[in-house]
Amino acid sequence: MIIAVDGMGGDHAPAEIIAGALESLAVFDDIYIHIYGDEAVMAPYLKEHARLKIIHCTEKIESDDEPVRAVRRKKDASMVRMAQAVKDGEAAACVSAGNTGALVSAGLFIVGRMEGVERPALAPTLPTVDGKGFVMLDVGANVDSKPSQLGQFAVMGSIYAEKVRGVENPRVGLLNIGMEEGKGNELAKAAYDVLSEAPVNFIGNVESRDLLNGIADVVIADGFTGNMVLKTIEGTALAFFSMLKEVYSASLKSKLSAVLVKDNLRGLKKKMDYTEYGGAGLFGLNSPVIKAHGSSNANAILNALRQARTMVQYDVCGTIRETIGKVETK
């Protein structure tokens, strides 16, 4: 299969993007990678490989570009050309660490929304203390959502958790301010009824304080709430490790103790590392589109490509297409 990659998107492009692409070719012998970007800029980081192809682009979408305008006007941008390749059938999936809003726009306007899907959803896999992780959607593709859309998010997330993450009969929870039925605002109350009838293993409401303890395999929220929870988790993890570093470097005694627990700390950091979980899938499109973290390193790109490969292998989009019509419209 061919996977298209935006070589110019992300804080560490193109060096880390290309390094991750080359690593993935060493790990998977059944994929071909087409990297889109400025060939002259990428040249210092490139290595010849039989399954790597470079497609030269004269433009790139910047992090501060207005998403819709950039996608419509920058026709030769690496992200736009990458998405077009998927639409034209030249690639089976695509990966970018670039401007999130622009990638959502490119996914909608170029790759195309799946028939029957009201809104796409951005869905990362977030860490849990047991190392299994959970899928959360939506985390920002939409600001506002309807109950029926949350129901569709549940179907898409459940299919992804089962097909890609290997979770049998994944538990789907609705993010709310309390676990009791009848809690929350009008959206949450109506969505509860929709999810109760959806073809998923709905376990009811879940609270944000329980997310990292693995209370559910799939967590459903509107994009506004989901994005705030996502950034709170990311910020808390960064602050926690910063405080740990400060504690273990405070004195000679603490530095010596850090040596003794170094492997344990390394394991803890890996468990909470977003790069180990790949990117955020943009569910509800005709083909897999993966948004890698803006600060992705080579390992994050490798895992985002792994994610795209698995979605194609297990025809996640096809399964979503077959199932999505079973969600009650409200």
UniProtKB/TrEMBL annotation:
Pathway(s) annotated for this protein in UniProt: Lipid metabolism; phospholipid metabolism
GO BP terms in the entry: fatty acid biosynthetic process; phospholipid biosynthetic process
UniProt keyword list: Acyltransferase, Cytoplasm, Lipid biosynthesis, Lipid metabolism, Phospholipid biosynthesis, Phospholipid metabolism, Transferase
InterPro entries on file: FA_synthesis, Phospholipid_synth_PlsX-like
Cell compartments where the protein resides: Cytoplasm
Root EC class: transferase
EC number(s) recorded for this UniProt protein: 2.3.1.274
GO molecular function (one): phosphate:acyl-[acyl carrier protein] acyltransferase activity
Principal place of residence: cytoplasm
Catalytic activity reported: a fatty acyl-[ACP] + phosphate = an acyl phosphate + holo-[ACP]
Family: Belongs to the PlsX family.
HAMAP family the record matches: PlsX (MF_00019)
Assembly and interaction partners: Homodimer. Probably interacts with PlsY.
Summary of the function given for this chain in its UniProt record: Catalyzes the reversible formation of acyl-phosphate (acyl-PO(4)) from acyl-[acyl-carrier-protein] (acyl-ACP). This enzyme utilizes acyl-ACP as fatty acyl donor, but not acyl-CoA.
Protein name (database record): Phosphate acyltransferase
